[in-house]
Fold:
Amino acid sequence: MLYYLLYPLRGVISGFNVFRYITFRTAWAALTALLISFILGPWLIERMRRIKLGQFIREEGPKSHQQKAGTPTMGGILINVAILIPTILWADILNPYIWIILFVTFAYGAIGFIDDYRKLVKKRNLGLTAREKFTMQILVALAAGLAIAYLPSIHNNYSTAVTFPFIKNFAVTLGPAYIALIIVILVGASNAVNLTDGLDGLAIGTTLVAAVTYTVLTYAAGNFRIADYLRIAWVPQAGELAVFCGAMVGASLGFLWFNAHPAEIFMGDVGSLALGGAIGCLAVMIKQEILLVFVGGLFVIEAASVILQVASFKMTGRRIFKMSPLHHHFELSGWRETKVVVRFWIIAIIFAMLALSTLKLR
Structure:
């Protein structure tokens, strides 16, 4: 919004010319999100405590987590607000990709809100049923997939071809099946982040790493010269998504301030589903669908640990891990919560560096 309000005044005040630069607006989106988090965070925490919207801890979880019962939850509301306002302020609001990413983020956030609210009303760790949650997630992903594949094609002939890291000059064109891939990516990413949200600061810190990575990737994908040099898909107008990523970086940093151990507030599904959906949507829109496996490598590992645990128990009656998701396994192995979180952050950073290292190799 500020882009259209202030940039036209560059002839009067030359300093307003900086609004043309995505890098400038991305940095200020991050700072604005951080400021919003710091201002609204204490108020939201106090408000949640006053109306007693506290977390219910599942009985089968680690016993050490029982002391966290009653900690304010649904902090994802703060994350969503801290992403929305800076994006509207600093991004080009006429860019179709901005509205698609905002739709996915807040639609998944709404699903998470309903899930969290039901848990609080029932006063137990049970919200939406798996069928209800997946149905709503698939419908949102379907709508987003249609918008991604067809609406931007009016402007830039958006490609449904899927490229692969490490492999040069190779792509698979999926056509209509591309919509199905988008659904898998968005639903998978949102649930993977949700599964990772089990320790203080773990999910939001890992999201921060992914957000920084996608800030680089979105800017590169939207810049023809950089995309050509790195030999990645050039997606006209997609560079504006860097502003959204900047807002997500600032919102993640701001929330981490309150979510660091011992957490003053939890993000809840309203936060984790929204962030996961946003990460998956970013990967799709900049044509880095497969690279998401590397950028969100830790999320993939956490989700895979749950899938393997359930499959092993159903087929053999035995468990592979002491508890899933994987972070609980290491907790029960004697690692302190803070050690698990920091080491998992390190793993996330390694995956992010691996993802960025593939750009020139393709």
The first helix runs from residue 2 to 6. The chain has a mean pLDDT of 88.
